[in-house]
Amino acid sequence: MRLAALSKMGALAFLGATEIGVPFVRMIILTRVLGPYEFGFAAALSATYGAVEQITDTSLYRFVLATSRDRYQEALATAHGIALMRGLLVAALFLALSYPVGCGMVSCGDWSAFAWLAPLPLIKSLENLELRVYERDYRYKPQLIASLVSHGCGIAVMLAVGLWTGTHYALIAYLIVQAIVNVGLTHILATVPFRVMLRGPLVGQALRYSLPLMANGLGNAIMTQGDRLLVGAFLGLQTLGLYAVVILTSYVPTSGLFRLLGPVQMAGLINAVDRPDVYEARLRLYARAVPMVAAAYALGWEVLAKSFMPAIFGARFVASDLTILLVGLIVYLRVCRTEPMTAVLLQTGGTAKLAVANQMPMLGLALGALLVWIHPQLESLLAGMVVGEIVALIAALTIVRGRLGTAWRDAVTASTTFFVLPLAVGVLFETVPMLDPFLPRLAVGMGCAVVLLATGLAVLSKPARQAYRPTVRSDMQPPRKQAAE
């Protein structure tokens, strides 16, 4: 049983590592085969595509996850039907936006590059969502296979097109090939055939569950893409290229982190709903552990960024110590306000409240836009975003208070306490010149890691034992139906 559990968790960890590694490989290739302008163009395409996709994201597979097992096939077919309609609408939206966005970001003569993004949502709408629903039973290997193969094919095509043309069309080729291969593999690896249904009571339930997540997607788009669009518009494509590398090395890897934290927490809560004491213990464990993970992640970025970026991506990609400090605070706050709040609200059906919480970064982005207009520097935008993330964390903790129960105090205490670490270390690196070389930074980081490890052992051991104590029915297996008496 333990070997099976380790195998499943290993597949999830590898899947998260893949989602971190692929953007790095893609960025390394693009920075090496494209010049500064073409790389900035590719960053503008990526930001536009990511923004529209996230704004219109409905996370339909999570609706299937939350539906009872006896209605699984009906829920899956309904999700496919809604996904197909979404794909058609988003494709039309890309076509409508391609000319004005092209004129605003690059030049009107290059608008057709943005129109090439239109087929992507339509292709992705044909994905068999069953591979994502396997998460309910801790099955991640099919997703891992689809991810590895599709990204591998996309990267190979991107490299070939990049070497051949030296233009932003290398990124477009990657996106299209990856989407086609991934969709094909979801049909091959799924056990339930792809069916589409747009009638019945589940349609209304699915829309009520998923439509608020479009507002949530707006907040996520602002969080991950809006800043890039602002940088491109106010500071130019070459600064956008530098910022794209900063975001890749700081925030993008959190997608892999969330890929690990989200499914584990979601499945843990779903499988403990009939055991209130275990459910509460898991909430307390997650509320304490996530800020520690966030602090370790932010510290790693602050220690490695100044040496890592130019060594991997080229000498032109150098960030200031102030930029590194501000970005470290942003990633810490984003992780803390995302989990376990997102898992709790999704598990309890609070998608509307989740959407409200994720709109708060708009305040920071608006403040950042004002500051960068007054003082056109990258750090101006980042300072405004830090303020927005603090407001968003407060809003998230307030909204989820009733659903966290006794774990709310743990979440507030941990998120505020561990904020001190990345703040203090970032200020230290900014103000003490002798810490500028890599080895002194590494020594400071290792010292902080020891403090985090000791603290984790002290405050996580007891809730971990309570949350995952042995039971007759293992959480690593789906609950079996009891025989009728």
TrEMBL record:
It comes from the Bacteria. It is found in: Cell membrane. It comes from Methylorubrum suomiense. InterPro entries: Poly_Biosynth_Transport. The keyword RNA-binding does not apply. The chain crosses the membrane at residues 12-35, 76-98, 144-165, 171-192, 229-251, 311-333, 354-374, 380-400, 412-432, 438-460. Keywords: Cell membrane, Membrane, Transmembrane, Transmembrane helix. It is a multi-pass membrane protein. This is Polysaccharide biosynthesis protein. The keyword Transmembrane applies.
